[in-house]
From TrEMBL:
Residues 74-111 are annotated as: Disordered. InterPro entries: Beta-fructofuranosidase_N (IPR021792), ConA-like_dom_sf (IPR013320), Fructan_Metab_Enzymes (IPR050551), Glyco_hydro_32 (IPR001362), Glyco_hydro_32_N (IPR013148), Glyco_hydro_beta-prop_sf (IPR023296). It catalyses: Hydrolysis of terminal non-reducing beta-D-fructofuranoside residues in beta-D-fructofuranosides. SUPFAM superfamilies: Arabinanase/levansucrase/invertase, Concanavalin A-like lectins/glucanases. Belongs to the glycosyl hydrolase 32 family. The lineage of its organism: Eukaryota, Viridiplantae, Streptophyta, Embryophyta, Tracheophyta. Keywords: Glycosidase, Hydrolase, Vacuole, Zymogen. It is found in: Vacuole lumen. It comes from Linum tenue. It is an enzyme of class 3 (hydrolase). This is beta-fructofuranosidase. Its main location: other. Its EC number is 3.2.1.26. Residues 45-125 form the Beta-fructofuranosidase N-terminal domain. It holds the Pfam family Glyco_hydro_32N.
Length: 569
């Protein structure tokens, strides 16, 4: 009858701009009864965890359970506080004076531009919202990464960038390198829209490392009449670890939209993979009306291509597939695989970024490298109708194989919630997620496990560990860490069910932190002030979908994060 949790709090102070103010971190209690032990979040390998406990400390939270009410058992640490009790209280701890915006108050973002509320933001007012952990350029617009790769000791990210403004347009490839995927060095622009075949934008593309040492960078160019074509670029000097200079192939464009495909529906070539016939395959996302599709081309030299007479895969009703990604995962084991790996003991993941919904959907399936067909293992969880990488703001992701550490790294783009008007005032828009290592979930073989790259731990300067914390139902336990500007939190929960009955309707994060399910929710109240009038909940919602199945949602609830009104202060 217990939920256990381990949490480590680690506040590095590397950022001159505080991301978290008043960081009182607390655990939200499970709000109701529990019965079956449920692994909620895949833990890091035991060795890592032990290491972290020694280094960072950790904490164990034991949630008492029973038939609970908000005012039920009292915590041993603090009086119970109902997470939902003052849901409608709105005295904000921060307001427009500190740069709180539509980003933190989604209710202020209307469907139509004229419905939106804005404020006279300045760049300086928003500096506290910038992050030190995540990749983002110093200023202006960015959307999604292209061609990530590891080369001669450096990780390279190329990103969709507008060098002139904080809104989308004039898309150019920004370029940055890192030794550890965390600390980035901004380099000169890699590709700019200066040819007829990309004059309207150098859009997303992917890198392929040839066994002969060459790097082939395929990217989408948007032409003067907005036709999407595929182009090839190469490093001017492949021996340069920083790959500072890029040249566009004189044969460009190497691919035009094929017959039957709309000129604006042909973009974002994948990293190529090598087939059993010695030819490379490149996938490109498209659509036929509302049918989302993946075209596949075969090529020997990346200059001439043959379009297959069938799709790699298609799903009705999903619309345009952007930023298609296709990669192998090992059925057993924790290592990543090179993109060309196929055969026994290997599954393949197909991902599409759905243009219609701006969500990244993937599915696990089986790839036949001879027929060049991919089939989802579970048709109910097909691409675009089933699993997502992330249930928050997350789009245009891309993976790459890190041959140095034999892992597959996933990177996504966190798109803006501010209005364009506000973005222009503040001078920047959006950022990249922390890169994540992805492997197949060995327990089910049907899902992916994602974990922030281990290098994130290099940011930890101090650490706190809370162990054996017994939390009463319906209450909040403060974990005192003093003040900090950035925190990395590791929390481990163990849930033990009391009954094995289906008790919940399938739901998701939509109800927020205050809505109960039979097994929760429970999690962390971050960015909380002392009165809990201001907080951001990051929480787990396990939902018992049948007697022996639990689906766990990992959610955030920002409805009590810096609400502001026109006269907030
Ligand atoms: N954005 C790029 C496209 C891609 C989309 C253009 C994803 O290549 O399809 O900036 O957000």
């Amino acid at each position: 009858m217990e939920t256990r949790s381990t949490a480590a709090f680690d506040p590095p102070t590397i950022n001159p701009y505080p991301l978290f103010l008043n960081p009182i971190f607390s655990f939200l209690l499970p709000l109701s009864q529990m019965a079956v032990e449920t692994p909620l979040l895949d833990p890091p390998p035991p060795a890592t965890r032990r290491q972290q406990c020694g280094l960072i400390l950790s904490s164990l939270l034991i949630f008492s359970v029973g038939l609970l009410t908000f005012s039920g058992h009292r915590s041993q640490q603090s009086p119970p506080i109902s997470p939902g009790a003052d849901h409608h209280r709105t005295p904000p701890a921060r307001g427009v004076r500190e740069g709180v915006s539509a980003k933190s108050s989604p209710g202020f973002v209307g469907e139509e531009e004229e419905e939106r509320v804005s404020y006279n933001w300045t760049n300086a007012m928003f500096t506290w919202q910038r992050t030190a952990y995540h990749f983002q350029p110093q200023r202006n617009w960015m959307n999604g990464c292209a061609g990530p790769l590891y080369h001669k000791g450096w990780y390279h990210i190329f990103y969709q960038y507008n060098p002139d403004s904080a809104v989308w347009g004039n898309i150019t490839w920004g370029h940055a390198v890192s030794r550890d995927l965390i600390h980035w060095l901004l380099l000169p622009l890699a590709l700019v829209p200066d040819r007829w075949y990309d004059v309207n934008g150098v859009w997303t593309g992917s890198a392929t490392r040839h066994p002969d040492g060459n790097i082939y960078m395929l990217y989408t160019g948007s032409t003067g009449n907005l036709t999407q074509v595929q182009n090839l670029a190469h490093p001017a000097d492949p021996s340069d670890p920083l790959l500072l200079n890029w040249v566009k192939n004189p044969a460009n464009p190497v691919l035009l939209p094929p017959p039957g495909i709309g000129p604006k529906d042909f973009r974002d070539p994948t990293t190529a993979w090598l087939g059993p016939d010695g030819l490379w395959r490149v996938a490109i996302g498209s659509r036929m009306e509302k049918l989302g599709i993946t075209l596949v081309y075969k090529t020997r030299d990346f200059l001439s291509y043959e379009l297959l007479d069938h799709y790699l895969h298609s799903v009705p009703g999903t619309g345009m597939w952007e930023c298609v990604d296709f990669f192998p995962v090992a059925v057993n084991g924790t290592k990543g695989l090179d993109t060309s790996a196929a055969g026994e003991g290997i599954k393949h993941v197909l991902k599409a970024s759905l243009d219609d919904t701006k969500l990244d959907h993937f599915a696990v399936g089986t790839y036949d490298p001879v027929e060049d067909l991919w089939t989802p293992d579970d048709p109910k969880n097909d691409v675009g109708i089933g699993l997502k990488y992330d249930y928050g703001r997350y789009y245009a992701s891309k993976t790459f194989y890190d041959q140095e550490k034999q892992r597959r790294i996933l990177w996504g783009w966190i798109n803006e919630t501010d209005t364009e008007f506000d973005d222009l005032k503040k001078g920047w828009a959006s950022l990249q997620t922390i890169p994540r290592t992805v492997v197949l979930d060995g327990r089910t073989g049907a899902d992916l496990l994602q974990w922030p790259v281990e290098e994130i731990e290099s940011l930890r300067l101090r650490s706190y560990c809370f162990e054996d914390v017994l939390v009463g139902p319906g209450s909040v336990v403060p974990l005192h860490i003093g003040s900090a500007t950035q925190l990395d939190i590791m929390a481990e929960f163990e849930v033990e069910l009391i009954s094995g009955k289906k008790t919940d309707e399938e739901n998701s994060c939509d109800g927020g932190a205050a809505e109960r399910s039979s097994l929760g929710p429970f999690g962390i109240l971050a960015l909380a002030d002392a009165s809990l009038s201001e907080l951001t909940s990051v929480f787990f919602r396990p939902v018992q979908t049948s007697a022996d199945a639990v689906t766990t949602y990992f959610c955030t609830d920002q409805t009590r994060f810096s609400k502001f009104t026109f006269d907030p202060l």
